[in-house]
Each structure stands twice: as C-alpha cells, then as structure tokens.
Amino acid sequence: MQCVPGSIVCGSGSVPVAEVGQTGKALSRIRGARSRVPRRGVPLREETTNPPRPLHAFAAFRAFALDRRHRMKVRIVVSYVPRYRRGHALDMVPPITGIHLAALTPPDHEVEVVHEQVRAVPKEPLPDLVAISFFSGFARKAYATADAFRALGVRVVAGGPHVSYWPEEALAHVDAVVTGEAESVWRAVLRDAERGQLARVYRGEPRPLAGLPTPRYDLLERRFVVPRVIQATRGCPFHCAFCTVPDLNPGFRTRPVDEVMRDVTTTGFALPWQERVAWFWDDNLLVDRRFARELLAAMRGAGRWWLTQTSIDVADDPDLLDAMEASGCIGVFLGIESFDAGELRSVDKKQNVIARYKDAIARLHDRGIAVMAGFIAGFDGQTADAVVRMADRLEEVGVDVPFLSVLTPFRGTPLYDDLLADGRILPDADWGSYSGYDVAFAPRPMSVNGLRDAHRALWRRTFAPGAVADRLARGARTLSPGGMLLSAAMNGFYGWKRATGNEPAGAPPSEARIAHPGPSEAPLRLRSRRAAGMR
Asked: How far is the C-alpha of 378 from the C-alpha of 381, rounded, in Å?
C-alpha cells in the first residue's frame, strides 16, 4: 500500500494515500538565471540547485509579467494511468492530495489542480511551476508529463510515496523532489521557485495536524461522484509488511475536531448527495478510541453520511458501533486481506482474527453499515485454486463490496526488503507492474502468469451477475438507506465492468528497467533519515 495524504502524493491508495501524503522577484530567475550546480561528490540529501536551461521567448515575456505582479501560476497534477482495459465510466472519488496541496498554496499564487483520472493535462496556458503527485504504478506517465513541461522551459517538482523512496530516479525527470509529508516544505518550494533557486531535494517532516486548511473543493473537476474528501487523522499504529504508511506517516496524529467539522459541514457542492456524503481519506480513522468518540459526537446531528477506512477491531466496541450509526456512518473499508492465518502472519497482520470475520461484519450490518473489504492474491504458499475460492469465502462472511488486488512489493516496506534479499523482485518488471493489479515479484508456488490469471479469475467470479445480485439482496435486508446506496453504486460500478469485459489491465509493454538496489544494501526508511538529521 502506498498513500501519503499529506504529501505531494498518492495515493490509497492512498493513497495511501492515500496520500496523503502536504517570494522572490522575477520568473526569469526560475528558468534563465545561473543556479548553483551540485559539486562532484555532494550527496543527494543536500539541498542543491539545478543547472540553468535556455529561456524560451514566451517564458521571458511571462517572467517580465511575473516581475510586475509577484505571483506564479502553479499547476498541480495528480497523475493517473487507467488500471482497467477501458478505464472508468464513472469516477467515484478524487484523491485528497491535489486539493490539499492547493489549499496550502498562498493566495498570491494562481493555482490549478488537474486529475489525469478525468482529464488530460493541458499544456496551455503554460504554468510557471508544475507539481506532480503519483504512486509507483503511475511513475512512467508522471515522468513523461514532467519531461514534456521541462522541454517547454517549465520547472517541475514531484512528490509522493514513489518519489520519497526513489528520489534519484525521479530527479532524472524533474527539477526538485519532495519526500515525506509536504506541509513543512511546500512554502519553501514556492519561495525558491520564484527566486529561481529550487533545491534538488526537500525533505518533509511530520508535523502536528492543527491548522490545516479546508481542501480546495472548488478546484475539483465536476466528474467526481463524491467530491468531499476529508482527512481527520494521519498514520496507523499497525505495521503490515506490505504498507509504507508507518514509515511515510509515522505515529498516529489527529486534527482538532472543530477543524474536521469545518470541512465536514462545508457546503456549495453541485448535487444533493454531494452535500450529504463525506469520504474520510484516512488510513485508520477510528483506531484512537477517545478521538473517535469525540469526532462522532460532533458529527451526530450534522446530517452527513460518511465512510472511511479502519481496522476490523472496531466491531469489538459496541458503544463505538452505536456512535458510528448515530453519526451517519454508511460504510467502512476493512483490510481483511486473507482467510489464512499463516498468510496474515507473514505480513504482520496480527490484528485480524479469521474466526471473527463473520461476526464482526454482522455487528456492522446490525447498525446498517456496509462493509467494503480488501483481499490480496499472491501470498507465499497460495495456489491458484485458493485464490479463486476467496470469492466464495468473502460471500460467506458477508462482505458487501470486495476490493481485490495483487500483493505488491513497494520500496520502504519489509515485504520489498525480503523479496529483494531473496532475489525475487522481477528485474524486467517496470513500474506498470506496481499498479496493484499486476505481478512484480516471483510468487511461490505459482508462476507470474499463474498468479495474474488467478487474480483475474477471482475478479470475474466475484463480480459475476449472480454474485452481485446476491450481495445486493442481502444488503436490502441488512443495510441502512445510505449503506444500500453505497453498496449498489460500488457493486454496479464493478459489476458493469465485469459484464462488459472491462477487466483489470496488465502492465503495458516497456523497455525501461528499474535500478533496484543490491540485495546487500541497507533497507531504505525515511525514519532513519530523519533520525540521522538528514535534510
């Protein structure tokens, strides 16, 4: 999982996010003035600047104009590559990253947010600075966008979970990178860009979440079905071996409840359900029980339907479940991942107890709450038959909306370190294989193609018309109106893909190769860099 909601990210993803995870004089100094060139042997962690590039005539004119108005045009691009053969007919929800970063941008700059999920990145009018957020599966597309803007003389900065762990690679395509969380460095990035003195690397530090602005919902494209995305917390206390969140967003931090409620009660959306629904873009919103109860008490009576991601142990707290129902919860996403205890142990998913899945989901259904749940194919020891049979198991425990992915080894996780040490990271798999729907490592005992085929068979079986109809019939008996609407929308979304043959796509052909570290190199962690005082 890659998601940094507070960085130039994402994203579950977070994106993982989420993600999620966050002045000067003339523009001529952005493009034309001589910058300090890194000395030979200077390590990447130092904030060094870029060599100059030719100043285009149009850029020179805009530099003069900028010198008079003291502002930049900033274009924030949230990169995207369709992960289904024909993309999406509907775009359910935006990542929070772009509109959060826009909200952090001082008002004397003109800011635009572009989600490639719903529209192509425009070239004209040329911006003064482009900031690109992406996760590993979208890296090649993001690099192509960066290369195109730099060829036009536009400075480009990149951030997010991929860049945080692959800064050297990204710096071949961009002028500067932001690693970690962006709030602590974004104003410095803008200031240095105006002065024409962009550093090569800006290392964001985790900060308290008080004082964060409301996301710039006004900059969202109109195609998103649920535009109100909110972040109330950051981080997760669990340390699943496939997830970068504990390193990217260390600890567990909460926002002041009154500031969260300011975002929850924001109005001005185009359609009635958009006014009502709030999607929390958190990794584990309810894990801090005292904060959860304070937040849910404030939300009671706000007239909102809300959904989020949390851990399955919420079902062990009847009072919390009652508060979730009373405050308008219509759905939760649970990372169930597997029905095999050994597989869960292999990725340190200790909080999941398989024997309690069905009862936990039933308790959520008793409050009318729909259960979205993630499942992973590709654990060691898994056979193709075991992967496909997950479709039956998830129906048995009562999951309303399944999310089905392939185990993916992102750098910055113990999973990546272990597979790299074992020589099982595929050397010819490019970043397209890190989408969550393709295979980037050598599975055991299945082959690469065997795992991919098993995942596709699982997907087809799970979203077959009969399976979708069964889930909707059960939901009609157990879910609240809001929960039923959520289940119907999501099952219809995936069921239509299944009916029309719009299946998950494999990685596109690529001759590029990833420069993985050697097996003997120390694992890369942002936390170790912070502890060492690296900038």
From this structure: 8
Burial classification of residue 508, based on how many CB atoms lie within 10 Å of its CB (0-12 exposed, 13-18 middle, 19 or more buried): middle
Cis peptide before 508 (omega within 30 of 0): no
Residue listed under structure tokens 């998913």: 349
Closest CA to 139 of 121, 165, 114, 119: 165
For residue 115, how many C-alpha atoms fall within 13 Å in the half-sphere facing its CB?
23
pLDDT in tens, 361-400: 999 999 999 999 999 999 999 999 999 999 999 999 999 9
Cα–Cα distance for residue pair 6/322, rounded to 1 Å: 30
Assess contact for 5 and 158: CB atoms under 8 A: no
Question: CA-CA-CA-CA torsion for 376, 167, 105, 268, nearest 10 degrees?
Answer: -20
What is the identity of the amino acid at 385?
A: D
The whole-angstrom separation of Cα 459 and Cα 454 is 9
Tens digit of each residue's pLDDT (9 = 90 or more) over 410-465: 999 999 999 999 999 999 999 999 999 999 999 999 999 999 999 999 999 999 99
- Taking only the tens place, the pLDDT of each residue in 475-522 is 999 999 999 999 999 999 999 999 999 999 999 999 999 999 998 888
Q: Which two tokens stand for residue 11?
A: 């994203």
188, with CB counted inside 10 A (0-12, 13-18, 19+), is: middle
CB 376 within 8 A of CB 338: yes
